[in-house]
Amino acid sequence: MDPVSVGLLAALAGGAGGEAGRQAWAGLSALVRRPFRRNGGEQAPVVSSGEPELVALTADPGAQGRAQALSTALAVRAAVDEDFRTHLAAWQEQATLVRTGDGAVTNTVSGGTQNGPVVQGRDFSNLTFTTPPPPPAPPSSGAPGDSAADSTR
Predict the structure, then answer these.
(1) Which of 1, 6, 26, 62 is deepest in the core (most CB within 10 A)?
(2) Other C-beta atoms within 10 Å of 31: how many?
(3) How many CA atoms lie less than 13 Å away from 112 in the CB half-sphere?
(4) Are 116 and 107 in contact (CB under 8 A)?
(5) 80 half-sphere exposure, CB direction, 13 A CA radius
(6) C-beta atoms surrounding 6 within 10 Å
(7) Is residue 118's pLDDT more than 60?
(8) Mean pLDDT comparison of 14-23, 32-41, 78-87, 114-123, highest-scoring range
(9) Is the dihedral of CA 72, 73, 74, 76 positive or negative?
(10) Quick check: 16 and 70 in contact, CB under 8 A?
(11) How far, in Å, CA of 135 to CA of 153, rounded?
């Protein structure tokens, strides 16, 4: 399992991603507060549950060191608790879908006249445009070199 991104943790702790981000953070909070799964009568391993690191990052979401500490605690716990690892992997898969603003956007319009709306930005959905058809091509002059005249040769 890949470690949870420090950037993702910091962004979610800071409230990025709107309601989806808040739900992802609440899901992680609930996950780390679950007790270690014990096999039979085995003693729980002596590793952090991740809760102290989660609380510290919640208090200071901009602290990259705290985000790194939480990422490390999650990775260590996942290594020793199979049930936690399974749930963390599922959480991580969903959390990476949350847009946290850490993506780059490059917009380029080229190639002549644009006969309709040009939308530049990121993460658009459910857009609908009603535009007139493009203007007709100018009539052919029939001069040498014209594509219509060349096709009859």
Answers:
(1) 6
(2) 18
(3) 1
(4) no
(5) 17
(6) 18
(7) yes
(8) 78-87
(9) positive
(10) no
(11) 29
Lookup: tokens for 33: 């507060």
Distance CA 140, CA 149 (A): 8
Tokens of 8: 């993702």
Q: What is the pLDDT of residue 40?
A: 52
DSSP 43-92: PPPSS--SHHHHHHHHH-TT-HHHHHHHHHHHHHHHHH-HHHHHHHHHHH
DSSP 115: -
- Average pLDDT for the chain: 82
| pTM of the predicted structure, to 2 decimals | 0.62
**Which spans in 96-151 are helix H?**
147-150
- CB 71, CB 9: distance < 8 Å: yes
- Residue 84 · residue 78 · CB < 8 Å: yes
Q: Write out pLDDT tens, residues 88-105.
A: 999 999 998 886 655 566
Q: Supply 54's token pair.
A: 């989660």
Provide the CA 73 distance to its chain's centre, in angstroms.
22
| Structure token pair of residue 40 | 């039979």
Tokens of 150: 């060349």
